[in-house]
Design a protein that fits this description.
Elements lengths: L29 H9 L10 H4 L4 E6 L5 E8 L2 H20 L9 E9 L7 E7 L5 E8 L2 H13 L6 E4 L2 E5 L4 E2 H7 L8 H18 L9 E8 L2 E8 L23 H10 L2 H21 L1 H11 L7 H15 L10 H24 L1
Antiparallel strand pairs: 1-2, 2-3, 3-4, 4-5, 5-7, 6-7, 8-9, 9-10
Helix pairs in contact: 4-9, 6-7, 6-8, 8-11
């Protein structure tokens, strides 16, 4: 996959492809905030990330089998809770109904969970319908420029639309539904009704999208699998849910999901069911679709890269390592001219999608 020789696409089981343990949080600069405001992402919020940090104590959240989930239920003083609950319901209305608060009268905040694991230390808000007990979630996190760039690139270049809003140091993200990749591999991969060929095809496409966008750390618990009934069978969509590692790491292989040991069952499935020609076909299909989306949103992505190319979202050491590895892998010395990670992502997109973009341009002449 990803133009590697077919015999070299499986991760070495003894090799640990691990991203940096703790990535620093990069603030959103003024230009990025202006971009977010222009595209309706920057909105005044009634509750901030810092407000939610004032919980008095927490209780571990277990799954239905009694296993630790790495989430903790946050509990607040009653005087703080009434203020927080009203604000959290208003945020949900902003996400779902453009701020029409009339729909919040039959909603309640069932729970606020906190996760100390990972980079973003998010809060997960569970909203419940008081009439039918149906529930939904959204997330409140610290704002991080890397994550914002990842969310925007996913929104523009992938088949998925992303809803998120920002305010000062707070980032609000919608819940992305789906079966967590690690649970899918454990509980669904070997089920008889799973269409393994279609799943393998989608894994190739997902692998290609991540590499072209330089979105890293797509281990199985950082993506979800959507299953959609289709004529006589099922279709699959793999969606990234963690964007902290957008163009931060220095190792090229950390941007390829195929090289994470957690994804090994999907890699082995792909190599078992798809030949080299099919893999290359699906890669070309995905690059073409990305090129079409890029052409349709060229002004927006140009505005984004004008900011990203001047921003600091990684270390000089990681930048040097990644541009050298990409230059050597593709035999393209242009990578070595890049001075920032933003410039490197832009160059990588240009070179990866160049053939597809040229075909689109010829078609439009």
């Amino acid at each position: 996959m990803s133009d590697l020789p077919i015999e070299n696409v499986i991760v070495n089981k003894d090799e640990l492809n691990q991203p940096s343990r703790k990535k620093p949080v990069y603030p959103a600069n003024e230009k990025l905030r202006q971009y977010l405001q222009h595209h309706g992402r920057e909105i005044n919020l009634p509750v901030t990330y810092r407000d939610l940090l004032n919980f008095t104590y927490s209780i571990p959240v277990k799954d239905k089998h009694g296993n630790d989930t790495l989430w903790e239920k946050a509990l607040y003083d009653l005087k703080d809770w009434e203020f927080l609950k009203e604000g959290l319901l208003q945020i949900y209305a902003i996400l779902k109904t453009e701020g029409d608060y009339s729909y919040t009268v039959h909603l309640d905040v069932a729970r606020v969970d906190y996760c100390s694991f990972g980079n973003s230390n998010p809060f997960r808000i569970r909203i419940v319908n008081k009439f039918n007990d149906n529930y939904d979630h959204y997330y409140i996190k610290q704002i991080d420029a890397s994550r914002i760039y990842g969310l925007e690139l996913e929104h523009i270049l992938s088949p998925n639309r992303i809803t998120f809003i920002t305010n000062d140091t707070t980032l609000i993200e919608e819940h992305i539904p789906g079966i967590p990749g690690d649970l899918f591999i454990k509980n669904y991969l070997e089920q008889g009704e799973t269409n393994k060929i279609r799943l393998a095809k989608e894994f190739v496409k997902f692998n290609e999208r991540c590499f072209v966008k330089l979105l890293g750390d797509m281990r199985s618990y950082n993506f979800v699998v959507n299953i959609s009934p289709d004529i006589e069978d099922y279709q699959y969509r793999i969606r990234a849910i963690d964007f902290d590692q957008q163009s931060y790491e220095g190792r090229k292989n950390l941007y390829l999901p195929q090289f994470f040991k957690e994804n090994l069952p999907l890699v082995e499935l792909t190599l078992k069911l798809l030949n080299k020609e099919s893999i290359e076909q699906y890669q070309a299909e995905e690059r073409t679709l990305m090129a079409i989306r890029l052409s349709a949103e060229r002004r927006r992505i140009m505005d984004l890269f004008n900011i990203m190319c001047k921003d600091t979202i990684s270390t000089p050491e990681k930048l040097d390592q990644l541009k050298e590895e990409l230059a050597a892998y593709f035999n393209q010395p242009q990578y070595l001219k890049c001075k920032t990670m933003g410039q490197l992502v832009k160059m990588h997109l240009k070179l990866s999608l160049r053939k597809s973009l040229q075909l689109i341009q010829r078609k439009n002449i």
